[in-house]
Amino acid sequence: MTILNSKAKMLTASLLLAVPISAYAADQGETEQAAERYAQSASGEARLITAGASGISSAAAGATGVKAAGASLTDSLQGGFDVAATKLKVPWSMQFAGDTVYITQRGGGIVEVKNGKQTVQEVRTKKALRVVGEAGLTGFVLDPNFAKNKYAYIYHAYEEKGEGLNRIVKVKLVNGVWREQKELVDGIPGGRIHEGGRLAIGPDGMLYSTAGETDRRELSQDLSSLGGKVLRMTTSGKIPKDNPFKNSYVYAYGLRNSQGLAWTSSGTLYASDHGPSGAPIPGGGIDATGRDEINVIKPGANYGWPLVIGNETAPGLTPPYYVNGEQAIAPSGIAATPDDKILVATLAGQSLKEFDPIAKTMTDVLTGEGRIRDVAVHNGRIYVLTNNTSGGKPGPDDDRLLILK
C-alpha cells in the first residue's frame, strides 16, 4: 500500500481563490490535549520508511500492523494528491452531489466547490448558531433525493437559557442559501468539547447521528439523555418503531465522543470513538491516554464508557471491535472502501489511516498534512479534509480539500 507524505513533491490542481469570510464568525479555539503529545512522537509510532522525492513510502511492520494481502482502493494510489479547495475555515463534514462538493465550516456556512470555484453559502436556522470550542456547525448529510428536492440535514450547536445544546435540522438549498425547513431533534447535550455530531443516512434509509457526552461522562450511561450515543430516526424526525428502546432515538450508548459512521457492503455499521486523553476525572484521578476505538454498532448495545476503557469489559457491555493503543490518534470521520476497508481520519494522529476489519490492523495512508477531520470515497477516489485551522499549525493555504492520486 502506498503511503503519501507531503514532504515530497506533490502534483497539485490549480489552486482555487481564497474563500470569503463565513456568514458566522469562526471560533478556532479547539484544543485536543492529545494532539501535541502525538505530534512529538508521531514519527516513532508510524515508523515510515521514506522513498525519496517521489513521495512514496512504505510502513514497516510494527505498532500499526500490516495490512492483509489483496487488492484495495489504497493499493491503487500512486502518490501525491490534487488540491481541490483551499483556505477553508475549520471544515468538518463533506457531501457530494455529482461533481459538486459541499463542506460545512464549524464557524458557519457551507462551502460549495463546483467547476473550480469556491462559494460560501449561508445557512439560515431559526436558532442562532453557537460557536464555542468544538461546538458549531458540524454534521451534514444530503437527502438521498437531493438532486430533486434539495434537502439536507445538519447538526449544529445553539444556546437556550444559557445552556449549550445541539439540534438536528432539515434544510433546503434555495437560491444558494440553506434554509431551515424543520427541526427534527433538539436538546442534544452540548458544551465546549466532546460534541460528536456526525450525520449519515443508513442503508435502511434512516438518519443516524453521533452525540458526544460533552465532558459529562455520566450522560453516556443515562438512557434518558441523548449524550454519548448513536441516535437513529426517520428523515422526518420520527422515532422508528424498531429502535431498541421504546419512544427513544437512542440506538446505541456508552460512547464518549464518536465522530465517524460508515457501513460496509454487508450492512455492518462501524463507528469511531475518541478514547480518554489524560484529562482529570471528576472526583479525583487522571484518565489514561489513547485507547481510541473502532466499534461495530449494534442496536441496544452498551459500549461501556465510562465504566470501562479500551479492552476492559464487564457483563452486559459490548467490547470495542478494535482499540488503537496508548498513543491517542483521535479518530474523526470514517469511510468504507469498495473492498470493505475503513478509512479513518485522525486529528491527534495527524494522518489518514486504513483499518482492516478482518486483520484488525491500522496502517497509514497519508501523513505529513497535519490534522485530518473527514474522509470520503466518491467515484473511486479518496477525498480528505484537513483540519489545521483548529488546534493545528495551519499553512498558508489551510485548510484544504485533497484528492489522493
Structure described in brief:
The protein is mainly beta. Helix content is 4%, strand content 39%.
Q: What's the number of extended β-strand segments? A: 28
Helicity range: under 10%
Poorly predicted spans = 6-69
Structural class by SSE content: mainly beta
Q: Note the gap between the termini.
A: 13 Å
H/E series, N to C? EHEEEEEEEEEHEEEEEEEEEEEEEEEEEE
Structural domain tally: 1
The CATH topology is: Neuraminidase
User: Would you identify the CATH H-level superfamily?
Assistant: TolB, C-terminal domain
* CATH architecture title: 6 Propeller
Mean pLDDT: 86
Strand order of the largest sheet: 2-3-1-25-24-23-22
Instruction: Please tally the helical runs, counting DSSP H or I stretches of 4 or more residues.
Output: 2
Q: Give the oligomer, counting copies of the same chain as homo and different chains as hetero.
A: single chain
Shape by Cα distribution: globular
Strand % is 35-45%
Give the C-level CATH assignment. Mainly Beta
Radius of gyration: 20 Å
